[in-house]
Amino acid sequence: MFQNRCAPAHGHFLGKLSSIGFRTPSPGPRTVAHRFAVVRSSSTVRSLEGFNTIGTGIYLREIREQCQDTKSPNVILIFGWLGAHPRHLRNYTNAYAKLYPKASQIVIQCNRDLLWTTNSARSRRLKPVIDALEALDCLPSSSSAQRPPRILTHVFSNGGSLQMALLGNVLQRKYGSTSIPGSSTSALILDSCPAAGDLKSIKLAVRTVIRNRIARRIVLVIVHAIYSIRFWLSLLFGKRMIMLENLQFEMWNPRILSWMGFHTPRLYLFSRKDELVSWQEVTRHAETAKERGMDVHCELFEESAHVAHARVEPERYWTSVQEVWAVATKEKGQD
What we know:
Helices cover 41% and strands 15% of the residues. It has 11 helices and 8 strands. The chain has an 8-stranded mixed beta sheet with strand order 1-2-4-3-5-6-7-8, with helices on both faces.
């Protein structure tokens, strides 16, 4: 069985944690390397403070100073939930900037058009993420002096999971099985995911994300049609053709991202009060992952809503994240 509560945080972490607030101003902009194309945001509302926009809904805070602390991540990859605005994701980027100030951060939004955009179009949008990972020495390059990367990946809800799985597929096609320079250290944080869901839960998610009544009705018709077609094709051909059902299986891949493996600890953060993603489904997914040999950790909250665990219990949430990263560095030290 899994623990519902992690052990108390270490003293040095609690000192940092006390200063983490979800309204803390983010640090000023960092100088971005010439290797990145900086895209000017068309609206300051949709930009992420302290970050450079390097693609549609993709933001980079690059720390150019070499991090001497080999126990901290040097890159943090954040996949937002469906419809999450930069102002929502800023809560997490600010917290990570305090916990790991020497880590570069890449944030990938999950826009609403995920529901009807093709895989090829979504893959093209992720190219700036790959460019950034290459420039940050997380993927192969012409440099022969690459240090092993230390990458913490934080995924929110099924929307973020879909984006992560798509990035993994793109990396696999581009680099094959030899993607990683050296021996990487990694951890995977799964907040309110994954779950296969049914048509009812998908419709509830659409109603939550899209406020405009007319747009919501149009999207619901499209979603219902796509779901129905895929459902009947699944019955006809005996294959998994429902997107979220496929996602659950992809998330059992220990190398879902090319720097990960069985050595990568994964932390499931979920709640009994989540109306969009059932805690029972997440529990079953975690149990299967453990049965398949993955290093699984669970944190089950009692009162928080979907992707709201950090807001309701911030100390417990961020303690769990840091402890799982500590597991990753400890396991790598024993290799």
